[in-house]
Predict the structure.
Amino acid sequence: MPVKNGSLPKINLKSAFFSVHQRPNKMKLEQFFFSQKISRTLWAAALIALPVTSFRWFPFLGDGTLVRPLSLYPLALLMLLLIIQWARGKTKLNWAGALIPLGALTLFIFAATSFGVVIDAIPLRGQTYSGRAIRAVATLFIGLSFFISAIWMNKNEDDLRFTVRWILAGLFLDLAWSGLQAVTFYTHMLKKEMVTHWQLAFSMRELVRSNRISGMAYEPAWLAGQMATIFFPWLFAAALTNYRVTRFKWLEPTLLIISLPVLLATYSRGGLLTVVAAAGLTFLFLGRDMIRAAWAWFVGGFRARIFDAALRAGMILIIIGVLAGAFMFLSRKQYISRLWQIDAENLSEYLVDIKAGARGAYSSGAYAAFEQHPWTGVGLGASGFYIYQNLPDWALTTVPEIAKQLSPDNRLYPNPKNLYARLLAEIGLIGFVLYFAFQFYVLGDILGLLRRDGAWARFAATAGVFAWLAITLYNFTQDSLATPNLWLVLGALAGMSANSFNKEIK
């Protein structure tokens, strides 16, 4: 600095001190903000919060909005952080090929919803088309955020192990809360009113009055759906491939053994059938080597010592005993035993007798909307405007739930209760085909992992096939696009497949 009139320049010592010492602090803060540690922390928080499906403390939502995943809070922060890091060049996002058919599906959903404005459905119970469309688009973006964040956070084996570990941590908390509910229902150690207050602190739903285990989910069927589509895929894959995500070899088998009675205690018919079907088909498709080895071991034992033959005979008796015990446990509930005790003359009578008449009627009403607008549908979220006027005749006189819904005092907006019926009604045949194009693209990514080297690849593919089958079946009993069940596991495996494919072609 030049000197004027022989005087020294004035120096602001305070500003100079803070400029020197604040710069390193700012750099450290920026490094922490853009580090992998904070993004992984938010991802872990989202995964461990998965069991809470109907979090009470969500702003701007009415009591009719039941799908409120707690994991959305850390997930929103994670998405924002990842986008900022990517824009600043601090990270490289994982772009999976599955985003192409998903993008086409999303664009068509917007087009079909815009077409629904032209149809302009008649308002129902204070609900307008624009309001329902905005809500439906919001739920779609919630689901997409789970899928995209799962792709971005799973690039290699280490990422997959991290994801599965925190999913299992969430399962552990869910099983602990389920155990607390079981103690409340079947012993006198805890008062039901007290535990209900504890649950209402985070959930919109009190304990189920029929003493069915619901865990941290809104209802038992939701817990069973979570277990079928998020938790059981990893536990089953670990048992089938002998791959472990932690150094505790006993962890996955123990969680699987504990989860089975919890699943039974939900008494969810759809959840039980989904798990059995997905496990059986996955074992049939990917467990052939194990089947052959087990059969050779089993048959060989009868040719050896008497002790070996007795051991195998004992195993058969144990398996039969477990299956018989599970059947007897489930048949205690009339809700389950109705499935085989009903003497109905046709399908509609059978649905009514097993307490599934309302679901069948809602799906039938939504399908009528598809018949009116088969190619583009009536717009996302608008199927409910067409359900009541298209209910089948048998539902009007034989289903008490339908009678309550048709009461002038009722203000509930109906839903199809079936995702496939909803997609046909709301985005038509074109959107329906695009949805399955996306689903089969993801399935191709999952099966492509079988060509990768390493035990982790077979573990991931086995879990993916189980999850894909479970989600396909689960969608017959639910219709929400916001639930993480549909997106999380498939997104993680699509990310793994994309990253391994990119490495292969380089």
